[in-house]
Design brief:
Elements (H helix, E strand, L loop, with lengths): L4 H12 L3 E4 L4 H14 L3 E2 L9 E3 L13 E3 L4 H4 L8 H12 L7 E9 L8 E7 L2 H10 L1 E2 L1 H10 L3 E6 L9 E5 L4 E5 L4 H4 L2 H17 L2 E3 L1 E7 L5 E7 L6 H5 L11 E6 L3 E5 L5 E4 L4 E5 L9 H6 L5 E3 L2 E2 L5 E2 L32 E5 L16 E9 L9 E3 L3 H9 L2 E3 L2 H4 L5 E3 L12 H13 L6 E5 L19 H11 L5 E4 L2 E4 L13 H7 L4 H16 L7 H13 L1
Parallel strand pairs: 1-5, 3-18, 4-9, 6-8, 8-10, 13-22, 22-26
Antiparallel strand pairs: 2-3, 5-6, 5-7, 9-10, 11-15, 12-13, 12-14, 15-16, 16-22, 17-21, 18-21, 19-20, 23-26, 24-25, 27-28
The protein binds oxalic acid and manganese (II) ion.
The site of manganese (II) ion has 3 residues, from loops.
Length: 578
């Protein structure tokens, strides 16, 4: 049964006992007020007003710097419906637990009630949420990341539906941190963390976990994908939705400065993290970006690697856990300039280059999407943009070729279901372990992933002209551990081949693992790439694939009887051909 907004806010007030309740209207004056409050209480620092106008630095609690997957739960009535991909609690137990945590937790604090819309105003695909929070940082960040205020209340009047999310910083103790989703009731409760993915409830909690569950019921898809438009020399734009595991360069790809701009190929950004995909009345797949801002990883972002992101963040942005220069400017590893003398690290202490990074590796910038210099003129079109290609990206040093095309929709779903990323030494201490992350949704799918694969398979049948599905891997290395492909702006050459295939052109050879481009069909003009490197990065390595298929079988076995027959058939056919 759908909850009413005002009675729910009243219940939350009675439970948490705030000193005052404030309904956000999303105005500029309100944003400035939130910022001033935080400047006064020290939770924000003003950055250099000349070089970074209206930009601020927030330092989070050092124990609260990333998404807390082990403390994140999906509470379906039946445990099996959540799947092994989720932590699970019974909904009633979860609610009891959360009520205990939230009881009286806002005493002496202001409760912000934030009505917001995910998706462009007036879009039939947009959805309303309300986040209640006691964090001014969360309220200000929601201003950037979503559309706040009357736009949401108006849509609520029309739809009579919203996703309620209750958030409190609590005392930030990790022992009392818990993020709970009840997808069957579209409820989100998040306690004890102020970090983006745990606390800005519109993003991962609503737009992926709750939305993926709603989408399956309602016939659409909520995906961890960037959306980009690729313009060709005649000015036609083809849109693609691309999934990569977290921290594998989605923002860089979405904002890529094309190395083929002199040939007339350029990128338009629609979104960098989440895509809601709907089928329109003509059977065409259409995508909207539910977000209004970027919450991007700062380290590694520079004028060299992503000048578009650097320009996007140079005003009206909130930086979190970056280092601070004596000129009051943000700095991080990979900024492109040497660390200046007198640098303060992300915790505000003098950085002495003792092996620890100055910025936290997961430090972030939060910036309005409209500031992106290459934001697509269609990024807020209520009908979304038509999607012609879906791309699944892996981060693998071997086995996976630079690019391949699936045989058909079902094979494409198999490519997505088997994708993965190699762990880096920084993350786990063990290099080269492949963490499978189907469709980059493992931490974000609000139900059993076996069912999710089945839903993807059935979804293709409803499309009049299903988008072509591709797999890419920018990260393949040679025998000496050197990257075979330069990546970044040169990735446009791979997208150009994908575009050629969409248009019925572009040469390819049919192999056991899919269609792989012939070396002459990748445009390498003006590029300093040895032909042997191109050959190797496109090669299909049979012995590597024998190992790969065994690992995929092992990974799929966890889905038991929920693994769709069509995927079992895909693996079996691959195995027999190998
Ligand atoms: C993100 C993530 O922050 O995927 O977008 O972790
Ligand atoms: Mn993400």
């Amino acid at each position: 049964m759908q909850m009413e907004m005002k009675p729910w806010v009243q219940q939350c007030t009675e439970l948490t006992k705030p000193e005052r309740v404030y309904w956000c209207d999303g105005s500029e004056g309100e944003y400035n007020q939130l910022i001033n409050t935080m400047l006064k209480d020290g939770t924000l620092l003003q950055l250099n007003a000349t070089t970074y106008p209206n930009c601020y630095l927030h330092r989070s609690n050092p124990n609260d710097v990333a998404r807390a997957e082990q403390l994140t739960f999906v509470c379906t009535s039946s445990k099996d419906d959540a799947g092994r991909n989720n932590n699970w609690m019974a909904p009633d137990d979860a609610k009891e637990k959360m009520k205990e945590l939230f009881r009286d937790c806002m005493r002496g604090r202001t409760m912000f009630v934030i009505p917001y819309v995910m998706g462009p105003a007036g879009s039939p695909y947009s959805k309303v949420g309300v986040e209640i929070t006691d964090s001014a940082y969360v309220a200000a960040s929601m201003h950037i990341m979503t559309r706040v205020g009357s736009v949401a209340l108006d849509q609520y009047q029309r739809d009579g539906e919203f996703v309620p999310g209750l958030h409190s910083l609590g005392d930030l103790s990790p022992e009392r941190r818990l993020i709970v989703h009840v997808p069957e009731e579209k409820l989100i409760w998040s306690f004890g963390s102020g970090y983006g993915g745990n606390a800005l409830l519109g993003k991962k909690c609503f737009a992926l976990r709750i939305a993926s569950h709603m989408a399956r019921r309602e016939g659409w898809l909520a995906e961890h994908m960037l959306i980009l438009g690729l313009e060709n020399p005649s000015g036609n734009v083809t849109y693609m939705a691309v999934a990569f595991p977290s921290a594998s360069g989605k923002t860089n790809l979405a904002m890529m400065v094309s190395s083929l701009s002199n040939e007339g190929y350029k990128i338009w950004t629609v979104g960098d993290d989440i895509a809601w995909l709907n089928i329109d009345a003509e059977g065409q797949l259409r995508a909207i970006n539910p977000e209004a801002g970027f919450f991007g990883v700062a380290p590694g972002t520079s004028h060299e690697t992503n000048p578009v992101a650097m320009h996007t963040m140079e005003k009206n942005s909130i930086f979190t856990n970056v280092a601070l220069t004596p000129a009051n400017e943000p700095w991080w590893e990979g900024f492109g300039t040497p660390p200046p003398a007198g640098l303060l690290d992300w915790q505000g202490t003098r950085w002495n280059n003792d092996g620890k990074t100055a910025a936290h590796p997961n430090s972030r910038f939060t910036s309005p999407a409209r500031q992106c210099p290459i934001i697509s003129p269609h990024w807020e079109d209520p009908q979304g943009v038509p999607i012609s290609a879906i791309v699944f990206g892996s981060r693998r040093s071997d086995t996976i070729p630079l690019v391949s095309q699936s045989f058909d929709w079902n094979h494409g779903v198999f490519l997505g279901a088997s994708m993965g990323a190699e762990t880096t030494a920084a993350a786990t201490g063990t290099v080269g372990i492949v963490r499978r992350d189907p469709m980059a949704m493992l931490p974000f799918c609000g139900y059993n992933m076996g069912d999710y694969f089945g839903y993807w398979l059935s979804f293709g049948k409803r499309l009049k002209k299903p988008p072509l599905i591709f797999r890419v891997n920018w990260f393949r290395k040679d025998r000496n551990g050197k990257f075979l492909w330069p990546g970044y702006g040169e990735n446009i050459r791979v997208l150009k081949w994908i575009l050629d295939r969409v248009r019925g052109r572009g040469n390819a050879v049919k192999t056991t693992i899919g269609y792989i481009p012939t070396t002459d069909s990748i445009d390498t003009s003006g590029m300093n790439l040895a032909s042997s490197a191109l050959l190797e990065v496109l090669s299909y390595d049979r012995s590597g694939w024998k190992k790969e298929v065994d690992e995929i079988v092992k990974f799929f076995s966890q889905f038991d009887t929920r693994l769709p027959v069509a995927l079992q058939e895909e693996v079996a056919s691959l195995k027999s051909q190998l």
